[in-house]
Amino acid sequence: MARIQYLTQIDIDFGVVGLLAAECQRLGIQRPMIVTDLGVRAAGVLKPVEDAVAGLPVTVFDGTPSNPTEAAVRAAVAAYAAGQCDGLIAVGGGSSIDLAKGVAIAATHPGPLTTYATIEGGSLKITAAAAPLIAVPTTAGTGSEVARGAILIVDDGRKLGFHSWHLMPKAALLDPALTVGLPPMLTAATGMDAIAHCMETFMSAAVNPPADGIALDGLARGWAHIERATRDGSDRDARWAMMSASMQGAMAFQKGLGCVHSLSHSLGGLNPRLHHGTLNAVFLPAVIRFNAGADSVQRDRRLQRMAAAMGLQLGDASQADVAAEVVADLVANAVTTLNARLGLPTGLAAMGVDASMFDAIIDHAMKDHCHATNPRLASRADYHVMLTASL
User: Fold this and answer.
1) What's the CA gap between 159 and 67, in Å, rounded?
2) Would you tell me how many other CB atoms lie within 10 Å of the CB of residue 185?
3) Which of 173, 188, 265, 269 has a CA positioned 20 to 30 A from the CA of residue 19?
4) pTM over the 0.85 mark
5) Residue limits of the Fe-containing alcohol dehydrogenase-like C-terminal domain (predicted)?
């Protein structure tokens, strides 16, 4: 059985942040708390958001860390309670939006946050009591603004997923103007996160034809515009396209992700200083090659269809005549080359990771919620090969 569910109201265009007060009114939010980080505040990106809700009593929490933690959730919940808040506005990248989702749970549900983690069987414990959330992304990468999940580092050090339709933002205001000042390397890293979402969810074996169509279109947009957005942050068309690709990747990954993300979640939990999008970019080539052996990937010519969306040439032979392993090399090499052109790290070693960490990475990856939805189930030995190839 395939269940297909899309719920978020999305507005995307330059200037839509101005709709924020009206969205608060529509959702019955009278005392919002803005969840953001110091970088967003320092960049001046928070001001248009505050201006848009100037008529409301607003609490601002700007203590979001680069990888949101259970401790940060507790601090934000204390601010939420002190301000007698009744709803959330997340302003920032995936970290701020995910932290706000953690607050939506913890401010309205009893017990430690780990109780509600997906791998702990907690998804069904998250109820409609979750605080309403409006998402205003300032990066184009995670797509958390239209996703039902959050990734948080809990007190015991694990980087866990929290998933419930009750965590889906009630509204997403996608204003590309808020991304114009994003630095080139952050543009590249978050953009590769969006591309990884589109590619990995398209390779997933789950049946969701609308998600597949959304993922392929998002891949085409992201692939065509990421270098333009990185090279010239003021390119409005490129910024709009990357924000759409980010949103589309998350709309599509409702069908599941895979080994790229199980590895990224694991390593990001072990070393929270590593950027999630950069890790995805580095892991993509090895996972693409591994997935070439999946029956569903071969049967549905998924690698060939991705290559077409990326504008890659398969030579004179028809797509049906080209082996999946050959196309996997073509696509994987294209990703590696793009990473280099964008100035991203060439491998894990350049990020300070060495083989001594592999066992710990694999331990957590095999327990990650994305592990089981990869189109080809990975063993410990498979993960070791992928990590070695990514080094």
Assistant:
1) 9
2) 14
3) 188
4) yes
5) 187-389
CB neighbours (10 Å) of residue 344?
Answer: 22
Which among 3, 6, 65, 59 is positioned nearest to 33, based on CA atoms? 59
Rounded to whole angstroms, the Cα distance separating 249 from 309 reads 14
User: 155 and 190 in one domain?
Assistant: no
Residue with tokens 């070695």: 388
Find the distance separating the first CA and the last CA of the chain, reported in whole Å: 39
**8 Å CB contact between 376 and 205:** no
Q: Are 276 and 296 in contact (CB under 8 A)?
A: no
Residue 130 CB partners (closer than 8 Å, separation 6+): 104, 105, 108, 109, 164, 166, 167
Reduce the DSSP state of residue 341 to 3 states and report it: helix
Residue at 85 is within a domain: yes
Whether 85 and 202 map to the same domain: the answer is: no
Strand locations in the chain, DSSP E? Answer: 9-12, 32-35, 59-61, 87-92, 133-137, 149-153, 159-163, 171-174
The token duo for 219 is 């891949």
Domain membership flag for residue 2: no
Tell me how far apart the alpha carbons of residues 280 and 244 are, in angstroms, rounded to a whole number: 19
Choose between 323 and 103: higher pLDDT: 103
Quote the percentage of the chain above a pLDDT of 90. Answer: 92
Closest CA to 142 of 198, 225, 182: 198
- The predicted-structure confidence for 290-343, as pLDDT tens digits, reads as follows 999 999 999 999 999 999 999 998 765 555 567 889 999 999 999 999 999 999
DSSP state of 63: B
**Left if phi > 0, otherwise alpha if psi is -120 to 50, otherwise beta: which for 154?**
beta
CATH of the domain at 339: 1.20.1090.10
Select from 145, 166, 142 the least CA-distant residue to 10. 145
Let me know how long the chain is.
391
User: Would 225 be classed as within a structural domain?
Assistant: yes
Domain total of the chain: 2
DSSP 37: B
The CA-CA-CA angle for residues 257, 260, 266, to 5°, reads 105
Give the CA angle between residues 187, 146, 176 to the nearest 5°: 40
Rounded-to-integer distance, Cα 43 and Cα 255, Å: 35
The verdict on 230 and 359 lying in the same domain is yes
Domain, as residue range, for 268: 184-390
The answer to whether position 101 is within a domain reads yes
